[in-house]
Specification:
It is built from 9 helices and 12 strands. The protein is α/β, with parallel strands linked by helices. The longest helix has 15 residues, at about 55-70. The radius of gyration is 17 Å and the shape is globular. The relative contact order is 0.14. The structure holds S-adenosylmethionine.
Length: about 270
């Protein structure tokens, strides 16, 4: 039995599946958890791989620690999306944290991740974590000046996540951050999303005084190389004193990676008009 993901209109990738552990249609999307030899257990939404036991650490460490270590002392953090709980697991490692609000639109993703992906969802019951089942767009609109760091760990820009890639949402994020706040979003593949990335970068640059794009390698995402875009009101991640960063027991993120993930190859710089 093979699972096949349609990555672009002309590209499909497949992996052999040992077992389908769970399958349902939620009010928002189709949801499956499958078990595979190559990737281990895999969370699939609308037939697109969201996270796998093999490489989830790369994505979750990079979408959290780069921004959190850039901020002087993040106390209140918001995660939008991220129903598997991987971002939250990394955020609770930070000593300065007082509270992380995890706003996921689809409670079924949270439930399935608790049951089938305990390695990823293991911090959901941490005392500093509050899970809110709601639309992230609505949540930022209703919470002004509330957060030090906002992390947008979304599905691709279709369906319920479409609005998470819009300029009006980035403006609401800006207003939901404190005066020295930072926001970071997963911004897709520099190979396959060459129209989307320049638009997002330009929208974010029009709202935040400082915009930075960084890279990581996530083998199960289309193209492997993945982008994250950060908008910051005050702190520059390239000025982070990496000697001061605490040991977070990570497998991909490190002080050296913090510094080098902003080094962009020319074909990525091109996307940013540099
Ligand atoms: N790491 C993944 C990736 O890049 O493919 C994303 C993982 S996470 C499972 C994405 C989550 O975003 C999904 O669980 C989805 O339900 C959630 N989501 C989509 N739109 C949302 C919205 N408007 N508000 C809050 N959560 C949303």
């Amino acid at each position: 039995m093979w699972f096949t993901e349609q990555q672009t209109k002309d590209v499909r990738t497949s992996c052999r599946t040992k077992k389908i552990l769970h399958q349902e249609n939620t009010p928002f999307q189709s949801l499956a958890v499958i078990d595979t030899d190559q990737y281990g257990r895999v969370l699939v939404l609308d037939n697109i791989i969201q996270t796998t036991i093999m490489d989830e650490f790369v994505y979750h460490e990079m979408i959290t620690h780069v921004a959190l270590n850039t901020h002087a002392a993040p106390e209140r953090v918001l995660v939008i999306g991220g129903g598997d709980g991987g971002a939250v697991r990394e955020i609770v490692k930070h000593q300065s944290l007082e509270k992380v609000v995890h706003c996921e639109i689809d409670g079924a993703v949270v439930d399935a991740s608790r049951k089938y992906l305990p390695e990823i969802s293991c911090a959901m019951d941490h005392p500093k974590v509050e899970i809110v089942i709601d639309d992230g767009i609505k949540h930022v609109r209703e919470n002004k000046g509330a957060y030090d760091v906002i992390i947008v760990d979304s599905t691709d820009p279709i369906g319920p996540a479409e609005g998470l890639f819009s300029a009006s949402f980035y403006k609401d994020i800006f207003n939901s951050l404190k005066d020295d706040g930072i926001f970071v979003a997963q911004t897709e593949s520099p190979f396959f999303n060459r129209d989307l990335i320049p638009r997002l970068y330009s929208d974010i640059s029009g709202i935040f005084p400082l915009t930075r794009l960084f890279l990581a390698v996530v083998p199960t995402y289309p193209g492997g190389l993945w982008t994250f875009t950060m908008g910051s009101k005050k702190y520059d991640p390239c000025d982070t004193d990496i000697v001061r960063t605490p040991d977070l027991n990570t497998r991909y993120y490190s002080p050296e990676i913090h510094r080098t993930c902003f080094v962009l190859p020319p074909f990525v710089k091109e996307l940013l008009g540099r």
